[in-house]
From TrEMBL:
It comes from Candidatus Cryosericum septentrionale. Zn(2+) 3 binds at residues 180, 227, 229. Keywords: DNA damage, DNA repair, Endonuclease, Hydrolase, Metal-binding, Nuclease, Zinc. This is Probable endonuclease 4. It comes from the Bacteria. Transmembrane segments: none annotated. Zn(2+) 1 binds at residues 66, 106, 143.
Length: 281
């Protein structure tokens, strides 16, 4: 796995590569604007050039952008749905301009419409987004969630259903967050549980469509639906699943992004823990 973290863009996106290097990252995830903002002015030419220069100089592998948390692709409220779709179109354009191949988004919450309807709305949202960004290549990665309340994506089947209803499936992949799938009830703590979960992942989503991992331990218990990230080895998941993931040759070229508490100040420590799990050749 290519290890990285969700780093700060304080002062502008052009600062992100140096922040990533300071945390010992090989790849990175960023927001391209405040995660609580619907819209932002387009990225300036200089910001884009500065970001790309920083990535290249430091041999960083382009990882992922995370979409704004406000986005709900399955929203019931028509205003919210329009805003969410437009926000994704602008985020996708920004991601493309930065040379990052993947935009990660949570599939959305159906808010009482029922999962089936929510899945249909989310797929229609993706259709709208891709129709309006047809010149772009950036893929949208639907992130696995804990599935709390009306949140979609708590099962691999729900994620697969959204992709299969979308008219542009080649532009839809998946991002697997270890904290989220554990909270959703996928027990990856033992070698047998890990093997069974990855088998399910392959059977339902196809490993070719899994393009990134988020590596987080979990403060919530197995199946608790709690989405609270913990530092690596300090939560309910423990170190074993990370050891298994890092040894799994199917994921050698995949970004593995930390979103652990403590942010940029704690990433180097967490990355060192992960690297200590990789057997020396
Ligand atoms: Zn996320
Ligand atoms: Zn995540």
């Amino acid at each position: 796995m290519i290890l990285g973290a969700h780093v700060s863009i304080a002062g502008g996106v052009a600062n992100a590569p140096q922040n990533a290097v300071d945390c010992t990252c090989e790849t990175l995830q960023i927001f391209t604007k405040s995660q609580l903002q619907w819209q932002a002015p387009p990225l300036l030419r200089d910001e884009i050039a500065g970001f790309k220069r920083g990535m290249k100089l430091n041999h960083l592998v382009p990882g992922t952008v995370h979409a704004a948390y406000l986005v709900n692709l399955a929203a019931r409220d028509p205003d919210l749905l329009v805003k969410s779709r437009d926000c994704m179109i602008s985020d996708l354009g920004r991601t493309e301009h930065l040379g990052i191949p993947y935009l990660v988004v949570h599939p959305g919450a159906h808010r009482g419409q029922g999962a089936e309807k929510g899945i249909q709305v989310a797929a229609k949202s993706l259709d709208y987004i891709f129709r309006n960004t047809h010149a772009h290549r950036t893929m949208v990665l639907l992130e696995a969630t804990t599935g709390t309340g009306s949140v979609l994506g708590g099962t691999f089947e729900e994620l697969a259903a959204i992709r299969s209803l979308c008219r542009f499936p080649a532009r839809v992949g998946f991002c697997i967050d270890t904290c989220h799938i554990y909270g959703a009830g996928y027990d990856i703590r033992t070698p047998a549980g890990y093997t069974a979960t990855i088998h399910e992942l392959d059977r339902v989503l196809g490993l070719d469509n899994v393009r990134a991992f988020h590596l987080n331990d979990s403060k919530g218990a197995l199946g608790s639906k709690i989405d609270r990230h913990a530092e690596i080895g300090q939560g309910e998941i423990g170190l074993e699943p990370f050891r298994l993931l890092l040894a799994d040759t199917r994921f050698t070229k995949m970004p593995g992004i930390l979103e652990t508490p403590g942010g940029d100040g704690a990433y180097a420590r967490n990355l060192a823990v992960l690297r200590s799990l990789i057997p020396s050749p």
